[in-house]
Design goal:
By secondary structure, this protein is α/β, with parallel strands linked by helices. The protein starts with a strand and ends in a 7-residue tail after the last helix.
Length: 299
């Protein structure tokens, strides 16, 4: 199937590679010429600009944006839409706010363009393991794009969860849960590291917990990897960013009068990590680097 991928960062670049390996014809564009050059491969064609993206696609065009939420996504959307036509499909696979996605879907509907929002999870491991795709779309748009989702996703790793906006809503809550899980691991390993009675090997414990324990998980497998490299995480600052979804999850919980103390406190702990060094925050920073390729701040 033919589609365009705009945005060739950690996620978008790997998705292009997986799509090309799956036999899709992909037109790529990024503001960085180096990024475009780096992702040239069989079945991949570079576009000179956004207008050229549209020119290289045959109707019914499918254009996937894989960009940071907010202004970068909105600006690119506004620039590409004049080059699209009735029946075309525009996909946002980034971490946009679900209300922005609902508004964009409504605006594009007036032009006859379908909007699909895809909450995408899997980090840098998605290339080899496949992604988890939470898809908001009309039934028709979902069915048209399903071959793309099948190629990108892990086995049973994609679902049509509702109309436009639903995909980013589900991904928002997914990331809120992730905040809580990361915080729990960070705190637990900090207690182990701080013990006055025992000199514990955190890598050994992480490996142990990954075999039969009720706290075993993919995230804890990443902890095992992180500790194998440097058990004290001495090269990482305990500074943990947030990309917005945790805040939106807490806001939604408050709007719905749903108590969400764990997610809320995990968000506040991230704020705290930026003010003073914390071993627990180091663990979280290390895990995010391991599973998502996120940059870490070093001493």
């Amino acid at each position: 199937m033919q589609l365009a991928m705009i945005g060739l960062g950690r996620m978008g670049g790997n998705m292009v590679r997986r799509l090309a390996q799956g036999g899709h014809e992909v037109v790529i564009y990024d503001q960085s010429a180096d990024a475009i050059t780096a992702h040239g491969a069989k079945g991949v064609r570079a576009a000179r600009d956004l207008a050229d993206v549209a020119r290289q696609l045959a109707p019914r065009r499918v254009v996937w944006l894989m960009l940071p939420a907010g202004a970068p996504t909105q600006s690119t959307l506004e620039q590409i839409v004049p080059h699209l036509a009735k029946g075309d499909i525009l996909i946002d696979g980034g971490n946009s706010n679900f209300r922005d996605s609902m508004g964009r879907a409504e605006s594009l509907k007036a032009r006859g363009i379908e909007f699909v929002d895809v909450g995408t999870s899997g980090g840098v491991w998605g290339l080899t393991l496949g992604y988890c795709l939470m898809i908001g779309a009309s039934r028709a748009a979902f069915q048209h794009c399903e071959p793309i989702f099948q190629t990108l996703a892990a086995p049973e790793g994609y679902a049509h969860v509702g109309p436009p906006g639903a995909g980013h809503y589900v991904k928002m809550v997914h990331n809120g849960i992730e905040y809580g899980m990361l915080q729990a691991y960070g705190e637990g390993y900090e207690i182990l590291q701080a013990s006055k009675d025992f000199k514990l090997q955190l890598g050994q414990i992480a490996k142990l917990w990954n075999h039969g324990s009720v706290v075993r998980s993919w995230l804890n497998e990443m902890a095992e990897r992180a500790f194998a490299g440097d058990e004290r995480l001495s090269g990482i600052r305990g500074y943990v960013e947030d990309s917005g979804e945790g805040r939106w999850t807490v806001e939604e919980a408050m709007r719905l009068n749903v108590p969400a103390p764990v997610i809320t406190l995990s968000l506040l702990a991230r704020f705290r990590s930026r003010q003073e060094e914390s071993f627990g925050a180091k663990v979280i920073a290390a895990l995010r680097r391991e599973f998502g390729g996120h940059a870490v701040k070093t001493d």
